């Protein structure tokens, strides 16, 4: 199937006026709907945003490929849009995106459709194609460019197939040559899988290195790596965001990275795969035992990696549950209690959904995904059970974190101990032996060993928080607020947020109040700086004023990241001071936000008695950071102005 059977004139939007990511998504979804490609616009748009929440589909090089594979798609299609000015799409390289391809794939889509989508992803890695598309002035020109690239890609595929066939025939005589293998895979198996494949192949060609890439896409495994391939390989790259079977690579030099690194860092990955001095990968017990990429991590970084895997999977429950709780408070602070005069039956059911269901799952999910990060799927069940026991044993988040690491490393140990069981029992390992042993042992250790001291520590911490007052609580507000602005989504930010969420689940709202206020300040301050000190910013930078205000008010700290990345020595200290002061003022004035996310929307809903005080903290913190950054930032240079003007042309 040709790409232009999916990309047609009525799915092309030549000049996007959208200024932000959401605007681009809305425009392209509407374009697909007008063309009759969707059954359910709302469900499709939700699926697109769900994919974006996993990782940005802005893959750099000025390209974004939002995509979804759902039943809401009536017929497979591709929508195209372009923006000469560029849109802040939170891309991997923090650069604006200019070319947008939205892929709509139906569930159970035909193989030919999926092959065409895969081919498009590869074509976009060609710089010449991207340059032509940027300067295309009509839908007809876009289709012609894609058709020509499609023809060229088909010829290359045929040539490569013949080359691989010839290489197979001469395999024995080439056995001493450097040979790199790769596996690429992304959650939806549509775009990033194939872009990583083509980036690696093109880089290998430049380096005169032989490479074979297996893709684990939505249409299944393509270009499967054979035993002979693996035996010959000097090194193997696994660029994947989903589970890939790695037992087959036992004893080889394996490099495991996210799929985005396959797109961004192909040369570095190939060089690492060719480095024969690295410690070989060891697979045991039917699952990954040794991750060579993780061996490089210090214990602290490994701990952070596993913890963040738990936190990232916990956050949807925190956010959805917290906002539902905030809605309940709009009915009255005690509207969910049957004995209260404010009682409302609907509010009670919302409370059951948000507090008694979503929030009840937070600690088990945290523990389960920490364990899964360490031991893969076999560790998941023990992590969930350990997390449940942390809840029932009153050890809270501390117990949940302990349970996750305990279950993960215990499962790894069980896999190692049972590695030499008879082959006849191999099939029972993942379904019976691993879960039974890990769940029982994790459960007993949590009940008799870890829960008692963790519960005592949890109680001590909460008592300490509840006893804070006056200058002490303001100091707490300053520290948490400043931590939210240090790395804006990194380790310090996440540590402060996890601590604040843990306190909220136990009934203390002070930390989450400081965290939310502190996290809102950076984007608000950046936008305010650009308003007050306009001449210190380019026209392109000032184009992000409105998006930064929206992100700041919505408690999306990451809106300030591009500015922090470009000028960290001025931006980060300025933001930390304002965020810290705002957190201190908010707690000092008695602000009390009872939801873990939502920004201004939950402030108005859950902090009714202190809205004015909270807004004062926001305004003061924003102005402090804005003036600090504005005074520290030098005037924009002529070169920066010219570069900005060139992008506008």
Give a quick summary of the entry:
The protein is built from 26 helices and 13 strands. The protein is an alpha/beta fold and 649 residues long.
Itemize the secondary structure elements and their pairings.
Blueprint lengths: L11 E2 L7 H14 L6 H14 L3 E3 L2 E2 L2 E4 L6 E11 L9 E10 L4 H13 L3 H9 L3 H31 L9 E7 L6 H15 L3 E8 L2 E3 L4 H6 L2 E6 L13 E4 L1 H6 L1 H8 L9 E2 L2 E2 L3 H4 L3 H32 L14 H14 L3 H14 L4 H13 L3 H22 L11 H39 L2 H17 L4 H15 L4 H23 L6 H4 L2 H9 L7 H6 L1 H21 L11 H7 L4 H22 L5 H11 L1
Parallel strand pairs: 1-5, 3-6, 4-6, 7-8, 7-10, 10-11
Antiparallel strand pairs: 2-3, 5-6, 8-9, 12-13
Write up this protein.
Helix content is 60%, strand content 10%. By secondary structure, the protein is an alpha/beta fold. The strands form 3 sheets. Strands 1, 2, 3, 4, 5 and 6 form a 6-stranded mixed beta sheet that branches. Strand 2 and strand 3 (63-64) form a beta hairpin. Helix 11 packs across helix 18 (491-505) and helix 17 (470-486) packs antiparallel against helix 23. The longest helix is centred in the C-terminal third of the chain and has 39 residues, at 429-467.
Residues in helix, %: 55-70%
Q: Please work out how many helical segments DSSP would assign.
A: 26
| Mean model confidence by pLDDT | 80
Radius of gyration, rounded?
27 Å
Number of strands: 13
Residue stretches low in confidence (pLDDT < 50, at least 5 long) are 169-173, 284-296, 643-649
Largest β-sheet summary: 6 strands, mixed
State the distance separating the first and last CA atoms. 36 Å
Q: Strand percentage, roughly?
A: 5-15%
Shape: globular
Secondary structural class: alpha/beta
């Amino acid at each position: 199937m040709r790409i232009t059977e999916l990309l047609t004139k009525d799915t092309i939007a030549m000049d996007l006026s959208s200024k932000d990511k959401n605007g681009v998504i809305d425009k392209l979804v509407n374009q697909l709907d007008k063309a009759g490609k969707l059954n359910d616009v709302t469900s499709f748009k939700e699926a697109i945003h769900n994919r974006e929440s996993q990782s940005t589909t802005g893959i750099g090089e000025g390209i974004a490929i939002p995509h979804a594979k759902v039943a809401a798609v009536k017929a497979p299609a591709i929508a195209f849009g372009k923006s000469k000015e560029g849109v802040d799409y939170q891309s991997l390289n923090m650069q604006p995106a200019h070319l947008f391809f939205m892929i709509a794939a139906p569930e159970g889509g035909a193989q030919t459709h999926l092959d065409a989508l895969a081919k498009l992803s590869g074509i976009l890695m060609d710089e010449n194609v991207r340059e032509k598309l940027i300067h295309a002035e009509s839908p007809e020109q876009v289709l012609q460019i894609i058709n020509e690239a499609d023809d060229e890609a088909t010829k290359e595929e045929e040539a490569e197939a013949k080359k691989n066939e010839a290489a197979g025939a001469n395999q024995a005589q080439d056995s001493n040559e450097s040979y790199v293998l790769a596996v690429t895979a992304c959650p939806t198996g549509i775009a990033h899988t194939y872009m990583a494949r083509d980036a690696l192949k093109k880089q290998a060609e430049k380096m005169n290195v032989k490479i074979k890439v297996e893709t684990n896409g939505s249409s299944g495994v393509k270009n499967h790596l054979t035993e002979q391939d693996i035996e010959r390989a000097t090194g193997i790259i696994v660029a994947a965001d989903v589970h890939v079977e790695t037992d087959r690579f036992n004893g080889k030099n394996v490099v495991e990275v996210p799929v985005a690194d396959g797109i961004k860092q192909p040369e570095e990955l190939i060089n690492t795969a060719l480095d024969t001095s690295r410690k070989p990968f060891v697979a045991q017990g039917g699952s990954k035992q040794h991750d060579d990429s993780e061996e490089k991590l210090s214990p602290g970084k490994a701990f952070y990696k596993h913890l963040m895997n738990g936190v990232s999977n916990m956050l949807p429950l925190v956010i959805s549950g917290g906002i539902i709780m905030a809605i309940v408070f709009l009915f009255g602070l005690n509207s969910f209690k049957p004995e209260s005069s404010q009682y409302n039956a609907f509010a009670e059911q919302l409370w059951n959904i948000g507090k008694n269901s979503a929030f009840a799952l937070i600690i088990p999910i945290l523990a389960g995904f920490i364990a899964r990060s360490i031991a893969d799927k076999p560790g998941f069940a023990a992590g969930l059970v350990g997390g449940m026991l942390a809840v029932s044993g009153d050890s809270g988040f501390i117990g949940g974190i302990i349970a996750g690491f305990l279950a993960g490393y215990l499962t790894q140990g069980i896999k190692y101990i049972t590695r030499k069981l008879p082959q006849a029992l191999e099939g029972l390992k993942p379904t019976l032996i691993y879960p039974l042993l890990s769940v029982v042992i994790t459960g007993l250790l949590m009940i008799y060993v870890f829960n008692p001291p963790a519960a005592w520590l949890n109680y001590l911490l909460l008592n300490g928080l509840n006893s804070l007052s006056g200058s002490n609580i303001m100091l707490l507000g300053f520290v948490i607020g400043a931590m939210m602005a240090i790395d804006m989504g990194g380790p310090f930010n996440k540590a402060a947020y996890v601590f604040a969420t843990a306190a909220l689940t136990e009934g203390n709202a002070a930390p989450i109040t400081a965290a939310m206020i502190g996290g809102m300040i950076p984007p608000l301050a950046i936008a305010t700086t650009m308003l007050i000190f306009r001449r210190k910013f380019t026209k392109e930078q000032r184009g992000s004023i409105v998006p930064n205000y929206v992100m700041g008010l919505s408690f999306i700290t990451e809106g300030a990241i591009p500015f922090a990345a470009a000028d960290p020595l001025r931006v980060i200290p300025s933001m930390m001071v304002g965020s810290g002061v705002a957190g201190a003022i908010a707690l000092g004035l008695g602000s009390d936000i009872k939801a873990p996310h939502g920004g201004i929307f939950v402030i108005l809903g859950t902090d009714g008695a202190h809205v004015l005080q909270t807004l004062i903290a926001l305004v003061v913190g924003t102005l402090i950071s804005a003036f600090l950054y504005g005074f520290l930032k030098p005037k924009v240079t002529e070169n920066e102005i010219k570069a900005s003007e060139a992008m506008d042309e």
